[in-house]
Description:
Strand content of chain A: 15-25%
Low-confidence stretches of chain A: 515-520
Low-confidence stretches of chain B: none
Helix content of chain A: 25-40%
CATH class of the largest domain in chain A: Alpha Beta
Shape of chain B: globular
Helix content of chain B: 55-70%
CATH architecture of the largest domain in chain A: 3-Layer(bba) Sandwich
Bound molecules: flavin-adenine dinucleotide, iron/sulfur cluster
Number of domains of chain B: 1
Number of helices of chain B: 6
Largest sheet of chain A: 8 strands, mixed
Structural class of chain B: mainly alpha
CATH superfamily of the largest domain in chain A: FAD/NAD(P)-binding domain
Mean pLDDT of chain B: 92
Number of domains of chain A: 2
Oligomer: heterodimer
Number of strands of chain A: 24
Number of strands of chain B: 0
Radius of gyration of chain B: 14 Å
Number of helices of chain A: 14
Amino acid sequence: MAQQRIDGATQRTALTLQADLVVVGSGPAGSAVAREAALAGARVVVVEAGRWLRPDEFALSAFDSMAGYYRAMGAQVVLGRAPMPYVQGKMVGGSSPINGAICWRLPQDVHSAWVAADPGLAQALPWPVLEALTDAIEQRLNVAPTDQAVAGAKNLLMARGAEAMGLEHRPIRRNVQGCEGLGRCLQGCPKGRKLSVDATLLADAEAAGALVLSATEIDGIEVERGRAVAVVGRSDGGARVRVVARRAVVVAASAIQSPVLLLQSGLTHGPVGQNLQCHPGVSLSGTFAEPVRMWQGATQGHEVIGLRDQGLKFEALGFDLAILASRLPGFGRPFARELAAMAHQLDWGVAVRAQARGRVRRWAGRTLVTYSPTAQDVAQFRKGLRVLGEMMLAAGARHVALGVRGAPVRTERVADLHAFERDGPTSPAAYTAAITHMFSTCKMGSDPRYSVVGPDFAHHAVRGLYIADSSVFPTHLGVNPQIAITAIATLCARRAVGRPLDAAWLTARAGHPLPLESTP
Amino acid sequence: MPAVLPRPRENRCRDALLGALLPGVGPTLPGLGQLDLSAFWQRFEAAAPAHLRLGLRLAVVGAAVLAPVLLYGRTLPALTEDQRDAVLQRAAGWPLLGPLLDVAKVVACMAYFADAGVQSAARGQ
Lengths: 520, 125
Ligand SMILES: Cc1cc2nc3c(=O)[nH]c(=O)nc-3n(C[C@H](O)[C@H](O)[C@H](O)COP(=O)(O)OP(=O)(O)OC[C@H]3O[C@@H](n4cnc5c(N)ncnc54)[C@H](O)[C@@H]3O)c2cc1C
Ligand code: SF4
């Protein structure tokens, strides 16, 4: 069998590779593209800036994991009224090996809104085809509701709190197999129980002949006579690397790095880098009389979905002690007292489908991301925190801590939470928020004036150039995006290899026949 | 950032600040100041982006030099534990320094729980 992996860390001499399709990035988008293209018979080379990690290399502490395989140590920040981190993995598999394993299908209401705004997308993103692809992907990733035997207190208590408040809730559907509830998903599963895309979709691509060049950052797309012909970059070992693409260059480097790569390559057509949409998340901690040991149990195993139509989605959180500790109130001795009671503390979060629009730019050789939550978004933070607080008190917390500058440190009274929602700080800078879901910076659309790629994922101005990740999504989703990204990227791959979305193909992928009339 | 203090002095102030931020926790968990953080700092300097390193240095200058000099006429390493704690409680409410202390607190927590002994003691609670 031909060589399937090249480690850029040991690549010290110039390297040129040939492919039908070169894919930049190996996260959910890149892995899905590589799999589909390789299964269709294309010669695929995937180039990934990060390195391969084995399960036994995943660290226990937040610092070791972030310093080892998060981009910029997880400390990239958006500039704006409230500097907040936007967090991304940098390894083979992208953010998938260090994400919460939460799986959501593309919501039909979001798809309908996309199509209503741009009817050209109906043919390009056919709903029955997306559904069939999602079925197949979910099956491959073993997506299923969290096993309650490994849920742990943080998840079971959220169910209790939501139930008491009459809010719709459910165990989170996750892509794991034999999860032991070690609560280490965000540092990478040390037992390999998370079925992240490196272990599934990319493994399938490799089995079908794709080659993965890791530890190599692409810094340019070569365009000749209006056609993308190659990508160029540098390996961690210091070598110049060039991958020639006979058929297509597919950019799948994430909603931040994809526009960055286009801008670096001088491809400024359309609103590239604009329209950045996110789901900023804020969290609240609470103290329980009995030990709840937040670090035990499935990392994120329960969610409250009753207010999704209002742009709020609540999740139990599970992270390393360092992150839990940094969210507890106080400094010095009062903080030490909080830490001494850490086994009694829980943290739950709310992701907000925010109105704000940001922008990704290149300036003086650096990437700048600007993004400022609007007044309405801040009102959503307050509402989300109020609901979280009420839910935690209903679940039995003695008191809750809002973690908002300028608001009462802690309370055990629901009335205080309502007062906070009504009168709490209006400046986004008062809130400790973080972003892990980014979208729409190379929007797909029928009109080249307002979009970067067409409904066929092809760049409006450069032939042979495709974009596959959530940067093409017309809007954000309001739910966790990894599954929707893989389904939509699979469609991109099909376009890039020039094959139809026909029934035979779908049947082969979905593992069951589909009615012909449901396919375009 | 140009050096405000000679580097060894800045490092002493940094260690004093982080030690004050996270003093001993109950009988089983040591204070951050009792841990050997040399490996942590080496890795932090190599991996942390420039703005995070800058944020920490500004926090050190603000909370381990300016604030204690303003309040007690001496820098943080020269103060008693009670005085160090008092500096933190005051500085936490100051407009610019408060958010910088948050940055220092995140780094302190990262350093603390990067210690294998602390991790296992805390998880065993
Ligand atoms: C901590 C965390 C938790 C999350 N939890 C969930 C969750 O539970 N459920 C969910 O659905 N989503 C979750 N997400 C979001 C989800 O993981 C991302 O939306 C998804 O991984 C994005 O896929 P992607 O392929 O577009 O980008 P990424 O996953 O970011 O992958 C892009 C890859 O491209 C590489 N790359 C970038 N630029 C270049 C370049 N120039 N050259 C070569 N390679 C490059 C990067 O190193 C990276 O590996 C989480 C994210 C984070 C960070
Ligand atoms: S909860 Fe633990 S065992 Fe389960 S997938 Fe995450 S890290 Fe692995």
